[in-house]
Amino acid sequence: MVKKLIVLGGVAAGMSAASKARRVNPDAEITVYTNEEHISYAGCGLPYFIGGTVKSEDKLIARTIEEFKESNIDVKLNSEAISLAPASKSIEIKDVVTGKTFKDNYDKLVIATGARALVPPFEGVEKMGIFKLRNVNDGVKIKQYLEEYRPSNIVIIGGGYIGLEMVEVFIEKGCRVTLIERAPHILPNMDDDMANILAAYLEERGVTIRVGESVEAFPGGESVEKVKTDKGEIPADFVLLSIGVTPNTEFTGGSGVELGPRNAILVDMEMKTSIEDIYAAGDCATAWHAISGKDVYIPLGTTANKQGKIAGENAVGGHAKFNGVLGTGIARVLEMEVSRSGLSERECRELGIEYEARVIKSRTAAHYCPVSGSMHLKLVVDKENKTLIGAQIVGFQGAASRIDMLAVAMTSKATVEELTDMDLAYSPPFSPVWDPVLVALNQF
Amino acid sequence: MVKKLIVLGGVAAGMSAASKARRVNPDAEITVYTNEEHISYAGCGLPYFIGGTVKSEDKLIARTIEEFKESNIDVKLNSEAISLAPASKSIEIKDVVTGKTFKDNYDKLVIATGARALVPPFEGVEKMGIFKLRNVNDGVKIKQYLEEYRPSNIVIIGGGYIGLEMVEVFIEKGCRVTLIERAPHILPNMDDDMANILAAYLEERGVTIRVGESVEAFPGGESVEKVKTDKGEIPADFVLLSIGVTPNTEFTGGSGVELGPRNAILVDMEMKTSIEDIYAAGDCATAWHAISGKDVYIPLGTTANKQGKIAGENAVGGHAKFNGVLGTGIARVLEMEVSRSGLSERECRELGIEYEARVIKSRTAAHYCPVSGSMHLKLVVDKENKTLIGAQIVGFQGAASRIDMLAVAMTSKATVEELTDMDLAYSPPFSPVWDPVLVALNQF
């Protein structure tokens, strides 16, 4: 019998774990410690909050502390785990407001401490006007700053999903926007041919894109004035650092909890760590990649929710299994949509997988419909067993969601032959008579 | 060696067959006979042409006669097949303009004569103002009639996809619209619980829906004035008959070509009929249902294109196989979308399949996004082997396209367990963090 479950972390994975554990086990004592002031918030909604689509930060909160209290889940804010002693099943917590520390004991522990934005020690990185965007407080601070200072020269560092969603926010505000990416192209988790379609569209929309360029410093006075890179200087009165995240796992040091890629906590398919009675889930943990079979670090909100649910169920006695990730991702930037799932060509090469890839250009709907826009679709197929192992989409309204069809196909390990000519839905506002997915499958 | 291929029919299946045969075999003589004046048109686009979205009927033509001529495909318009003699490999053709008949001989024959709108012999059905909508000429006639007479009391008979798409056209024109359906609910190929969500929405939008009601006659003078049913009379100055289609297969009588359900030509997976060297495809033919394993008659444009391509390839020596249909369908009516694939509950009962069904209500996107609308999703699962065998969706923007994910799952014979918690794409404008599909799968 589990008497006491402690959950570290109060966002997607942590609160999913606590909720699921409560549903499975009505009796266990469940305590959630989080070092933040907000819980259960939709981090992926932050760009829409800053852009004004979401009118108030409250709308991003899925469930409040009071609601969790009604389920008999005790949530302690501003409480950061600082060390872990599996031998005594104890955890040391620091109150981040008072600085006081105390210990608590668990029968079962779920670690869901998430990740934090990477902030490299660039010279001047502490200047006013330089932000990261990870939690609700970051969002509120950025929104206040924009309203107070109305910056016009925006530099976004990092061309992943968050950086791109913030490009949309600033272009819609009429700002001058420069996007800097250290990799050779934006959207580093897609292949260059696909990512460059979005880059060309953004340049048409007035965004300056600088790839293969590394930030070095932020010269200026108290406030940021420019961004210095290895290739020059860019005037800036607002800078967003969106170069990725790193898992909050330092407090496990010395505990024996094994870490995996990128220092995320290594978990098995039941979300168990290397130490008995300790589970981990979400952005602080690894995930099993359903195609490569490798343990990977791909922190995303959906995965956090699923892993959290499984960790919670198993921590109170279950044996649910997580089916793994495909690295499925999607984003909209102004009118253009991008999505990807499975392995890119680059990942195949890195993994030594023999593959075939094809790219087609088609339309999102019948050519005579006003909603019809162009779209590019890339499929990657395993040369040996002819299963679909990767897909990437760039295009206009309705394009990117097609990735889910391909994610289902990859989940089912379907071969190209099984999928060719399958019976997809057709009506002029939704697709051409030959859906782009069928057109692409017919290339193999 | 195939020297001469004759294709009967010049729309989706026929022109797909001719085109594919030409690509595979550059030398064969290919002649297409069609009894229509137009070829290669997008019949599914006709409601959008009448509504004005498609400005000219030319936009609905995928390829012209001249383009086919460049591929050395000879297309003869107004030429209707009236009899077939497999023993002498000859076909009798009537010129529908002059009334003259002649014979032609084939090495291989592809029958793609399509289907025509059902027009029961209701008293007064020939009156002015009563239309069917099947081909380009029907569309042009309706459009001219609407412009000339500006009818205001519209009665649409038949609540399938075409009837519903025409409801949209007339509601947008500000007309009073009554929809009459003989079955107990609109969308007879969906279950009543799902179809009635659309019915309620349409009633809110001002449409009068009368189900379980049978048309008997069209009283009035030269022009239609009302619709008389078994339950009363409805004033009408425009009537659309959209109660379904029947395959154009009468000319095969006595030829030995075996017919299947609804008098459609029975074909195997290679599109072969019961007679050597004769293939059939599209709305005049049956299709193999990939879940029930039965030969069914579900005439749809996508299937016609696929079957036509396969028939064309095989007629010149190939052995391509058609993977069967799921009866996947989709339609948009004003702001609401509907889709379905696989078996409905009613079909499962008729087939004696033990099933479980669940319906969930969710949202198309994150609740805080303006594009987020409600949607209902029903899944039907085989009780024995736990594979997904049916899905139905009703909801707002972005809802219905999710049917393709479920069509892929059914094509792959995936079990609920394999699909639960799969890695679908998430970003606020595209879905809630738990996509409705995952929510529904988690009900089993």
The CATH homology group name of the largest domain in chain A? FAD/NAD(P)-binding domain
Strand element count of chain A: 25
* Rounded average pLDDT of chain A: 96
Q: Looking at the structure, what is the overall shape of chain A? A: globular
Share of residues in helices of chain A: 10-25%
Instruction: Tell me what portion of residues of chain A adopts beta-strand conformation.
Output: 25-35%
Largest sheet of chain A: 5 strands, parallel
- Tell me the greatest interface: A-B, 68 and 69 residues
* CATH architecture designation of the largest domain in chain A: 3-Layer(bba) Sandwich
Provide the gyration radius of chain A in Å: 23 Å
Unreliable stretches of chain A = none
What is the terminal-to-terminal distance of chain A? Answer: 54 Å
Q: What is the multimeric organization of the chains shown?
A: homodimer
Under CATH at level 1, the class of the largest domain in chain A stands as: Alpha Beta
* Tally of helical runs of chain A: 11
What's the structural domain tally of chain A? 3
Biggest sheet strand line-up of chain A:
3-2-1-7-18
Structural class of chain A: alpha/beta
The third-level CATH topology of the largest domain in chain A is FAD/NAD(P)-binding domain
